[in-house]
Amino acid sequence: MPNWTYHTIDENDVLNLRALIGEEQRMLWKEQISEDYSHDELGGTSSWPELVIKPVSANEVSAVMKYAYEHSIPVTARGSGTGLVGSCVPMEHGIILDLSLMNNILELDEENLTLTVEPGVLLMDLTAFVEDHDLFYPPDPGEKSATIGGNISTNAGGMRAVKYGVTRDFVRGLEVVLPNGDIVEFGGKVVKNSSGYDLKDLIIGSEGTLGIVTKAILKLLPLPKKTISLLIPFPSLEKAIQTVPKIIKSKAIPTAIEFMQKEVIEDAEEYLGKAFPDHQSEAYLLLKFDGNSQDEIERAYAKVADLCLEEGALDVLISDTAERDESIWKARGAFLEAIKGSTTYMDEVDMVVPRSYVNDMVEYLHSIQREVGLRIKSFGHAGDGNLHAYMLKDNLSDEEWEKRLNKAMDLIYAKARELNGQVSGEHGIGYAKKMYLKESLAKDNIDLMNGIKQVFDAKNILNPHKIAQL
Length: 470
Description:
CATH architecture of the largest domain: 2-Layer Sandwich
Strand order of the largest sheet: 15-12-14-13-17-18-16
GO molecular function: FAD binding; oxidoreductase activity
CATH class of the largest domain: Alpha Beta
Keywords: FAD, Flavoprotein, Oxidoreductase
Cofactor: FAD
Distance between the termini: 6 Å
Number of strands: 18
Pfam families: FAD-oxidase_C, FAD_binding_4
Number of helices: 16
Shape: globular
Largest sheet: 7 strands, antiparallel
Helix content: 25-40%
CATH topology of the largest domain: Uridine Diphospho-n-acetylenolpyruvylglucosamine Reductase, domain 3
Structural class: alpha+beta
Protein name: 2-hydroxy-acid oxidase
């Protein structure tokens, strides 16, 4: 790692920062800091902070950053800690700014169809709030207990991306605290904006390396009145995946197109203690349609159902009740935790490839299991090409696991590059996937990223060693 000079926090710093915050219980030092703050959800990257501060306002974030900037103290922002690549792990220790107490919904503007929120608002609470007002926030990452600030920092995607897009498509404006403590605003409530470089979009997906989001203005849509899901069994995963481009070309675009295999479904059944609605096949497509009338949805899904049957589907199971729908999508939402529970440890990739190459990538994942000596389980967003593959440690020794995992990662990312794909579709790069990003992009791209970091953060105090930084 390059040598940046950082100040180690001492008792004097704690006293000074406590004076800025004013409430002792919102600062944790030494033995008060729980182990949770040293890692994210996956846990493969670990480093303890020296101090945890829980601000309740942009002004407090600003005050802490001004102090940190003046004293060269590294700062890492954190939400719920549900990330999977070590983005919120404080590699240079220093301060963690836990933004979970900044969890207020500030304004619903029904005339402009926007919602203004603080970064600590949980995705599930945000979704429930707008739906109570007959409105809709489409981004739908799998982890509903993630914060909106975390979603913005990784440009989270989710299952509805095939129709609606990702987090970036629904952020109109941001309030951001820069590394020097200045509070700035990027974007706003305007629908169109061609006023210079789009700094808002630069912050989205930057994983807290350029600034700390303290407020977000989100775009909303009218809530669709009806939703229907189709569970479609296929005799093989190949048949299922090969059907996806034809569904997209049919112009009857579903809200979501997910693929899943029987072995992952069985993990979810065991994890949830509930049976999946169907057991007749080795592979499934799970589709959701939404619209404002039953007729509109039926016209869309009837066309897709006929197409799937023509392509070799064994059946088309229509889930048109809340109870059925919940059982299917609850199983889909439990896949990650279920796979995690089926082994001693795991690591993951969320590579993304052009939709036309999804089948090639899935076939490749299964073909290398014997070569690398690991069980690999996968599922994903077939409609947008974002695949989640999980390498399982099982009973391997740490040394053997590292050797086999590195071989698997090298092969998978090399195949994604061959198929014109990218390292991450929605989880980000963080600390864990930096080397793969460097291998996948031209040197000019990496240099530009590091140059942007230098412009925003000349002292490199904000979440160092992430994304493109070695």
